Amino acid sequence: MSTPAASAPRDPDVTRDQIRRFLLDAEALPSPKGAALRLIELARDPEASIDETVRVIQTDPALTGFVLRAANAARFGGIERTLDLKRAVVRAGMQMVRAHALALSMIRDHARPRCTHFNYQMFWTESLYTAVLMDRLAAHFRQFRPGEAFVLGLLAGIGRLAFATAAPDEYGTVLARAAERGVPLQLLEQQAFGFDHHELSAVLLADWGVPTELADVVYWQRDPEGGGFEPDSRPYLLAGVLQLAAGVASTALAPEAGGGGIVYLRAAMLELEEADMAELTSAGLAELREWLQLIGLPPLPKPQG
């Protein structure tokens, strides 16, 4: 098979229809369980109270720790640290709480995909690093609602996990070809399935109750200029920041995957200096190590030297 060229513009409505058919035909998909599922149900109930949310979180000690850490994160600098779970939920925001619950339920899912060339632990490590970088970039640009940047970073790549779960054999072949030929993964995904993991992520997030505006940002993260966003709008900035954070995470954790070019280009477009990027990556890696320990994922290798 020849190396695919860059794909022509596609109709998002047609693409979403293809994704819906894929999801309907899938025998297995990553799905929220336990506390995460209950929190999604509560989000759809206009009568649900914050006390009910707190009670659900308290059933899961790991989720409780996750929420408390989020509420005491650096972006709330100057605010007194809290061990009160209700205050933590209010401070972090329900959107972030649900995202943490979703991620934790999937990380701990023992029915992991049997997909060759899909590294489950590296996927979540990269997702967490993207989330940490998004959080720090949000603090830099100051145009984001609390928690939304972390949520996007944590779940923006969930389509990769969905491909590996729903079509493990076919997706394993796609991953092998991408590694062998140095072809962008999304081009081979489009060739094999008709859509890529960014587009699949957006549809899944919308199904899980993530606001449409944020799902659209995930959909267009590979091409923020193609999403029809107003140049000075918050969604356009979010999409660009997400592209940058995901690119930094990918190149830092898997340098062989390439992609450094888009990182430099997007950083320049966002007017981030070399010193800004150095601080972002080093501080982000330090925070990532703390998250990995909290969740129970394998630690990063120690720096050489």
List the defining traits of the structure above.
about 300 residues, mainly alpha, Hypothetical protein af1432, 2 domains, about 65% helix, RNase_Y/CdgJ, HDOD, HDOD domain-containing protein
Detail the topology: elements first, then pairings.
Elements: H1 12-25, H2 34-43, H3 50-58, H4 61-71, H5 85-92, H6 94-107, H7 120-141, H8 148-155, H9 158-166, H10 168-181, H11 185-193, H12 197-207, H13 212-219, H14 234-253, H15 260-269, H16 274-295
Helix pairs in contact: 2-3, 2-6, 3-5, 4-5, 4-6, 6-8, 7-8, 7-14, 7-16, 9-10, 9-12, 10-11, 12-13, 13-14, 14-15
Query: Quick one: how many beta strands?
Result: 0
Identify the CATH class of the largest domain.
Mainly Alpha
Order of helices and strands: HHHHHHHHHHHHHHHH
Radius of gyration: 19 Å
Question: Mind describing the biggest β-sheet?
Answer: none
- Outline type: globular
Overall pLDDT level? 84
Count of the domains: 2
CATH superfamily of the largest domain: Hypothetical protein af1432
Helix content bin: 55-70%
Q: Unreliable segments (pLDDT under 50, ≥5 consecutive)?
A: 1-6
Strand content: under 5%
Architecture per CATH nomenclature, i.e. the level-2 architecture of the largest domain: Orthogonal Bundle
What name does the CATH topology of the largest domain carry? Hypothetical protein af1432
> Could you tell me how far the N terminus lies from the C terminus, measured between alpha carbons in angstroms?
43 Å
Number of DSSP helices? 16
Structural class: mainly alpha
Domain HDOD: 29-224
Organism: Pseudothauera nasutitermitis
Protein name: HDOD domain-containing protein
InterPro entries: HDOD (IPR013976), RNase_Y/CdgJ (IPR052340)
